[in-house]
Design a protein that fits this description.
The complex is a heterodimer of chains A (602) and B (226).
Chain A lengths: L1 H20 L8 E6 L6 E6 L8 E9 L5 E3 L10 E4 L9 E10 L2 E4 L3 E4 L10 E8 L6 E7 L13 E9 L6 E6 L3 E4 L7 E10 L11 E4 L5 H27 L1 H8 L13 H6 L2 H8 L10 H4 L9 H20 L14 H10 L69 H8 L5 H9 L4 H6 L1 H18 L15 E6 L4 E6 L6 H5 L7 E6 L5 E5 L5 H6 L1 H7 L6 H10 L23
Antiparallel strand pairs in A: 1-2, 2-5, 3-4, 3-6, 6-7, 6-8, 9-10, 10-13, 11-12, 11-14, 14-15, 16-17, 18-19
Helix pairs in contact in A: 7-12, 8-15, 10-12, 15-16
Chain B lengths: L1 H17 L23 H30 L24 H6 L2 H14 L1 H13 L5 H31 L27 H26 L6
Classes of the chains: A alpha+beta (602), B mainly alpha (226).
């Protein structure tokens, strides 16, 4: 007891001293790997675990499976430091080796962990040898043929070991290698290499069950610069593209017309219904203006709706006229056959009618001058033409079949409206008429208009008749004593009525004063304005047109004729008159467009 | 009428007898392609057999590594105690020289013995793997395929041996292999070997078979593969 205790204490003290001195038993070695290059011999390597400060020796011991006999490594040197080489005699296949390494020094020893090794499964051959890369020129282009030989130690001839090879290629400045499997053959053709570049080749091999060998040293080969191949490709491409261009050109040529239409669509010329550009070119103004006359104007279908209701104030004679007028208007409507869609059907062809009426000498009317301005779109209800129908002035409701108002666009803010209370731009007929009604003297009206206008003309001026009623109204007012509630009219003032369908609003536009005839003769054109645009509510927006001279007078032909025969505009009027056909044709002045758009379709 | 008929019959019989091609003789039934009967050469037979054995070995390798991965928790080498494979009684060359020293007949016999020894154990292996839930169907299918392959391989090697005997390359010293011992995979301790041990042993034996076949081939029909 004492001895053992003393021994322990001594050992402990010795260890402490040794530790203080820095020496210790060796560390545990470790077997790193065992490899066989040809399945006939093998080598095992270990790493030392630390020598503990003292010289340490290593010994490798092994025993075969199911055998307790322990052998020591036969050869420590052949394979280098810390290795053990088993030669052919000591190598047995298909047998497990149990290998351990023992490190020992003066202070003790240390045994590594055992490792089981079966040689068959640790085969790693040597690298292939004699790698050659040659450029072979072929008619399709050059390629590289890489050839090599098996590692010297591997015995593939007897079939003892079977090797498969792998080659990898990299061109200069590439980052990645391209790997190719060559199988069991000892050569490989590499295509897809870029010309005029240096290329690096490496080869390795592997047994059918085992590890890959290391890569061989790099073999360099330079690809030649083969242009002809690429050139032929470019030639092909050029020919193909020429072919395509030819086809395209031919196709374009065939379809050039449709291409033209597609790329350069024809600009639509000014479209005036009935206007023939050819006539313009030929220079016959008569023909031109003839073409502008609208067939079937004034519109007939809605004629009823547009007309102002007849006044019932007139006497028997007037009522007869009224009836007649109605009949006539209906006839007129029927007679209106071909209505030109393009042309404005705003008003009945009052211009024509009015002229006719005027021509028959309305001098008698004298002061009652109805100025009919037929601006392009103004189908103004200046149809005071004679149909002195005693429509009630105050009944312009369009809902009534009889009451029709002509859509008239007369924005004349500047114009002095004869009826004081009414604004120049838009007036409601009832309003106006109401104002004027007290002053209406149908008889006068009747006198004024009815006798002046021939019977036949009534037919054409159905709407005119209606309108004329209203105008008559105004006329009456103008002619006779002005209504008490109405400021005295300087002269006959006529209002052009334009109907607005939905609200039965008559857009009135004061006609120019007959007393201002000279002014009119100047063809100021203030009273008439060019239609600018048609809004959604069947409103014609006229624009001031101050550039018209006698041309305006042309549109004021009615006015001219009705007022005074000796009017400077007479020639135009005459011309216009002459142009006037029987049907309600409307002559269009320069820049004036038919107000057909305003009119409901007939 | 009967006379004419008789004459016709006689003529027909004569034609048949005289026609040399009408003789019916036994001919090998070739189930190969339209090119006619293509009798594979010995080299072809060897190639086929070697490919078969390679496939078999790779299967056994896969199964063994699966086992090792999933069913052996300890990678500790110490814990591995292998029992003897039941085929260890068969003397097999364990080196190249030893294998080359063997005569062709002996080598062939060794191969056949090995294959024969594994016929039943492989069947048992498949059965036990199929019954256990641990294995997925893929593994049990592999075991089944392995067993079939071993069977096929044995048949193939027998054919090769037959061919070699016909060609005079083999002597008649090859004993009847049907008399091969029906070895049961019973280890020394008498216990049945576990699946893992079976796989371990078979992996090794299939590698032996493949190796021996290659040596045999390169010895008998050396071509550029060798």
């Amino acid at each position: 007891m004492r001895n053992s205790g003393a021994v322990l204490i001594l050992t402990f003290i010795a260890k402490l001293i040794l530790q203080a001195a820095g020496v210790s038993p060796p560390g545990k070695p470790r077997l790193t790997s065992c490899r066989s290059p040809e399945k006939e011999t093998f080598t095992c390597w270990w790493e030392p675990g630390g020598d503990g400060g003292l010289p340490t020796t290593y010994a490798l011991y092994y025993h075969l499976e199911n055998s307790e006999t322990v052998y020591e490594c036969p050869d420590y040197r052949t394979a280098g430091e810390n290795s053990c080489y088993f030669n052919k005699n000591d190598t047995s296949l298909w047998v497990n080796y149990n290998i351990t390494v023992v490190a020992s020094n003066a202070l003790g020893k240390n045994i590594s962990d055992p490792v089981e090794v079966d040689v068959v499964y640790i085969v790693q051959p040597n690298t292939p040898e004699n790698v050659k890369a040659v450029v072979v020129h072929d008619e399709q282009g050059p390629f590289v043929r890489v050839s090599w030989e098996k590692p010297r130690t591997a015995d593939t001839r007897s079939g003892w070991i079977t090797l498969i090879y792998q080659i990898r290629v990299k061109q200069e400045k590439d980052e990645k290698w391209e790997e190719y499997d060559a199988g069991m053959q000892k050569y490989y053709n590499v295509f897809s290499l870029h010309p005029d570049k240096e290329c690096m080749v490496q080869v390795r091999c592997k047994p059918d069950h085992g590890f890959w060998s290391e890569w061989t040293q790099t073999t360099y080969v330079k690809m030649p610069n083969y242009i002809p191949r690429e050139r032929s490709l470019w030639i092909l491409i050029t020919i193909f593209s020429i072919f395509i261009v030819l086809i395209l050109t031919w196709t374009l040529n065939v379809k050039r017309n449709s291409m033209k239409l597609c790329l350069l669509p024809p600009v639509p010329g000014p479209k005036i219904k009935g206007f023939d550009k050819q006539l313009l070119k030929s220079g016959k103004t008569e023909d031109i203006f003839n073409t502008l006359v609208i067939q079937g104007f004034p519109p007939t279908t809605d004629y009823e709706n547009l007309l102002v209701e007849y006044l019932e104030v007139y006497d028997n004679e007037e009522q007869e006229l009224v009836l007649e007028g109605k009949e006539l208007s209906e006839d007129f409507m029927k007679s209106k056959s071909s209505s030109d869609n393009d042309s404005g059907r705003g008003s009945c062809d009052s211009r024509t009618l009015l002229l006719e009426k005027c021509m028959d000498g309305r001098e008698g009317s004298g002061s009652d001058q109805h100025q009919y301005s037929q601006h392009g779109e103004t189908s103004w209800a200046s149809t005071e033409s004679s149909e002195s129908q005693g429509a009630e002035p105050g009944s312009p409701e369009s809902t009534d079949g009889r009451a029709k108002t002509w859509p008239v666009v007369f924005p004349q803010p500047h114009h002095h409206y004869p009826v004081g209370a009414v604004k120049p731009a838009y007036h409601s007929v009832p309003e106006i008429l109401n104002q004027l009604s007290p002053h209406a003297t149908p008889s006068n009206y009747h006198q004024l208009h009815h006798q002046d206008i021939p019977q036949q003309e009534l037919r054409f001026s159905k709407s005119a008749c209606r309108h004329s009623q209203s105008y008559n109204q105004f006329n009456l007012d103008g002619i006779d004593t002005p209504a008490p509630g109405v400021p005295p009219l300087p002269s006959l003032e006529y209002v052009e009525v334009q109907r607005v369908n939905p609200e039965n609003m008559l857009l009135l536009r004061p006609l120019s004063d007959p007393n201002r005839e000279p002014e009119r003769s100047d063809c100021t054109g203030e009273d008439y304005s060019k239609v600018k645009v048609v809004t959604s509510h069947n409103i014609l927006l006229l624009q001031r047109d101050t550039s018209h001279q006698c041309v305006d007078d042309y549109s004021q032909a009615d006015q001219c004729t009705t007022q005074q025969p000796p009017h400077p505009c007479k020639p135009a009027v005459h011309q216009w008159n002459s142009v006037m056909p029987q049907e309600g044709m409307r002559v269009m002045g320069n820049g004036y467009v038919d107000s057909t758009v305003l009119m409901p379709s007939f | 009428m009967s006379r004419s008929l008789k004459q016709v019959a006689v003529l027909l019989v004569a034609l048949l007898c005289l026609d040399p091609h009408s003789r019916v003789s036994s001919a090998p039934i070739c189930t190969h392609g339209p090119s006619g009967c293509h009798v594979p050469s010995l080299a072809d037979l060897f190639d086929r057999v070697i490919q078969h054995s390679a496939r078999m070995h790779s299967l056994s390798n896969d199964l063994h590594s699966e086992f090792e991965q999933y069913f052996l928790p300890s990678k500790n080498s110490i814990g591995k105690i292998y029992r003897k494979c039941h085929t260890s009684s068969i003397l097999t060359p364990n080196g190249k020289e030893n294998a080359q020293k063997l005569a062709r007949e002996e080598l062939t016999e060794v191969i056949l013995k090995l294959l024969m020894a594994w016929r039943d154990p492989l069947f048992q292996l498949h059965q036990s793997m199929a019954h256990q839930q641990d294995f997925n169907s893929f593994s049990s299918n592999k075991a089944l395929e392995m067993g079939d392959m071993a069977h096929e391989l044995r048949k193939g090697v027998e054919k090769v041996a037959e061919k070699m005997r016909v060609l005079g390359m083999l002597g008649n010293s090859v004993t009847g292999l049907s008399a091969a011992e029906t070895m049961l995979p019973i280890s020394d301790s008498g216990e049945a070997m576990s699946n893992y041990e079976l796989l371990y042993c078979f992996r090794r034996d299939s590698n032996k078979v493949q190796n021996y076949l290659k040596i045999l081939k390169c010895r008998i029909v050396p071509e550029h593969d060798c």
